[in-house]
Design brief:
This protein is α+β, with helices and mostly antiparallel strands. The protein is built from three helices and five strands; from the N terminus they run βββββααα. It has a three-stranded antiparallel beta sheet with strand order 4-3-5.
């Protein structure tokens, strides 16, 4: 039997390659809104990040999310992502 290929994605914070299922997807919708995509199937330009607040802080400092989503991200969006991420972890 052939081994099933496991999709890998790179975290925009720590730049580690991990399984897609272990990561969270942040998307920019067609309305220029930036949201956390829990299902991983919503339409929009996506970027993957580890489910840890440390990676979100790294992505904020190195502007990884801004580069991946090709848009400027206000501080309020980072704060809301942090709250959503902490709710997801619990």
């Amino acid at each position: 039997m052939a081994n099933k290929k496991i999709p890998l994605r790179k975290c925009v914070g720590c730049a580690e390659m991990k399984e897609k299922k272990q990561m969270l997807r942040v998307i920019k919708t067609s309305e220029e809104e930036i949201v956390l995509d829990v299902t991983g199937k919503k339409n929009g330009r996506g970027a993957y990040i580890c489910a840890s607040p440390q990676c979100l802080e790294k992505a904020r400092k190195n502007k990884g999310l801004e580069r991946s989503l090709k848009t400027a991200i206000p501080e309020e969006v980072y704060d809301s992502l942090k709250k959503e991420m902490s709710a997801f972890e619990s």
